[in-house]
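Troubleshooting: if your tokenizer reports a length mismatch, compare your output against this known-good record of 72 residues.
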Amino acid sequence: MTTTFEENLAALEQIVQSLEEGTVTLDESLKAFEKGIKLSRSCQKELNRAEKKVEVLVKENDEIKGKETFET
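Known-good structure output:
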């Protein structure tokens, strides 16, 4: 099952909160930290993908606007 960016971010926030509270054991903290790193990488990868898509859409929009300017 694939998780969404929002689900990964919520899980990451929960991990950060539990680590900040300091109520878990060292072993649990290390496991949570490792999972948090994986979630962070996944979120960053998704953000990079979204950023590239936005750049493509903006470029396409600029090209269309440029053509409209020359056509009028």
